[in-house]
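hiii so um. not sure if this is the right channel but i have a protein structure encoded as tokens and i wanna go backwards to a sequence. like what aa goes where. can anyone help
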């Protein structure tokens, strides 16, 4: 099984980075192929809403790091997004990548071509952390991530979200988060 993992935080070894590493442990233990993307260090231009993908399902921007993500999304069986909550939403790093998937949206909804499923089907996992108590950030991020998953023909996903986790690495003190992430990783590769 091919598992595609997106690190959406600029903070290396921050809370969502730790959660994603933990979710990947059972997946790597079972020998699945993991392709991960550290979005903060990638060169990805934001969507220009030029309409170029409407008739082709392909983005007109062909010379940035999104090309390897397009390939991975086509070939993947499982997809994990990890993102901090920034201003009640997914991080900009994550959102730029998602917006460029407008090309998949055009392919699916305008051209009526669905990305073919592999033999294991497609499933997703969303990992979120926010420093505040308010859960509106989780709701907003969840809404955007759901649109992303459905656009890339991932019909179901699980979400783990932690609030009031702010300082770098604070998630390590959470009573269940690491175990939750590990177990979610295990469930993700169930067929
Ligand atoms: C620019 C910025 C905006 C933020 N906005 C929110 C917010 O709206 N809601 C929230 O709960 N936390 C917010 N936070 C706090 C982060 O979500 C929190 O520190 C989180 O644990 C970071 O995860 P990371 O370590 O994986 O980057 C914000 C932090 C930054 C830097």
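sure thing!! here u go:
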């Amino acid at each position: 099984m091919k598992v595609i993992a997106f690190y959406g935080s600029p903070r290396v070894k921050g809370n969502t980075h730790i959660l994603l590493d933990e979710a990947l442990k059972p997946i790597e233990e079972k020998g699945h192929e993991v392709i991960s993307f550290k979005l903060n260090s990638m060169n990805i231009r934001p969507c220009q809403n030029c309409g170029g993908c409407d008739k082709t399902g392909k983005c007109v921007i062909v010379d940035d790091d999104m090309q390897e993500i397009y390939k991975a999304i086509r070939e993947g069986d499982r997809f994990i997004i990890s993102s901090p909550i920034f201003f009640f939403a997914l991080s900009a790093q994550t959102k730029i990548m998602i917006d460029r998937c407008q090309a998949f949206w055009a392919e699916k909804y305008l051209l009526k071509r669905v990305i073919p499923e592999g033999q294991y089907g497609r499933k997703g996992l969303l990992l979120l952390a926010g420093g505040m108590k308010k859960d509106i950030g989780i709701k907003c991020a969840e809404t955007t991530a759901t649109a992303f998953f459905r656009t890339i023909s991932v019909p179901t996903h699980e979400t783990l979200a932690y609030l009031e986790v702010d300082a770098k690495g604070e998630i390590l003190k959470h009573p269940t988060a690491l175990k939750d992430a590990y177990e979610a990783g295990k469930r993700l590769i169930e067929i």
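oh and The CA atoms of residues 176 and 182 lie 10 Å apart.
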